[in-house]
């Protein structure tokens, strides 16, 4: 009997050359640093699971990383963005991962397999309050609002809930420019 391969493949499962050949043959596609069968659904669970080793059980995928997990961007970011609750006091020593301590409540975190990721609503808030606002960031926010049915009033409620969150005023202003100001 043949052993069953995992849903996500890495160089530990098959040599990288074989995985690349399988991709050229149209059997697998890249998912972050892993490979997956093209017949498997491209869903948030699969994208999150591809980052399980990089993020670990405490760190929470956030901002651009969360936007990719939720399907708002096509490719995983080169530099992963993550957060930990300010009470966690967790240190990560990886060149490809930026981790910040933030005020975040349990209801703003979603568990996808072995990975924790900010909810679509919290992801929208984090993208809106970022220093580097661009057309790409705006597109990510609009995609999350539509594809995940994020209610702008929920985002505004998070802004009010976290009264000391950096960039919250900027986020509220940007949200009003993206949606009907009467809604928020």
Give the strand line-up of the largest sheet. 6-5-4-8-7
The rough form would be described as globular
Work out the count of structural domains.
Answer: 2
* Rg for CA atoms: 18 Å
Which structural class do the helices and strands define?
A: alpha/beta
- Runs in which pLDDT lies below 50 for 5 or more consecutive residues are none
> What is the count of DSSP helices, taking H or I runs of 4+ residues?
8
Mean pLDDT across all amino acids: 91
Proportion of helical residues: 25-40%
Q: Give the beta-strand count.
A: 8
Give an account of the 3D structure.
The model has no long low-confidence stretch (mean pLDDT 91). This protein has helices at 16-24, 44-49, 52-55, 63-69, 120-128, 135-147, 152-161, 168-178; strands at 8-9, 28-31, 34-37, 60-61, 80-85, 97-102, 109-112, 115-118. The protein is globular, with a radius of gyration of 18 Å. Helices cover 38% and strands 17% of the residues. The protein has 184 residues and is an alpha/beta fold.
């Amino acid at each position: 009997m043949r052993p069953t391969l995992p849903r996500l493949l890495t160089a530990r499962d098959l040599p990288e050359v074989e995985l690349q050949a399988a991709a050229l043959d149209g059997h697998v596609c890249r998912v972050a640093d892993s490979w997956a069968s093209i017949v498997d659904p491209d869903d948030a669970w699969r994208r999150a699971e591809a980052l399980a080793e990089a993020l670990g059980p405490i760190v929470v995928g956030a901002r651009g990383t969360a936007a990719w997990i939720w399907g708002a961007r096509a490719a995983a970011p080169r530099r992963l963005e993550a957060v930990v609750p300010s009470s966690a006091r967790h240190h990560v020593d990886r060149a490809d991962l930026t981790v910040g301590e933030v005020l975040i409540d349990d209801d703003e975190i979603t568990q996808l397999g072995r990975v924790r990721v900010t909810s679509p609503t919290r992801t929208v808030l984090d993208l809106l309050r970022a220093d580097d606002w661009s057309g790409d960031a705006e597109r990510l926010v609009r995609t999350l609002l539509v594809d995940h049915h994020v209610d702008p009033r929920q985002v505004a409620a998070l802004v009010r809930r976290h009264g000391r969150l950096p960039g919250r005023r900027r986020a509220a202003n940007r949200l009003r420019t993206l949606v009907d100001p009467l809604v928020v």
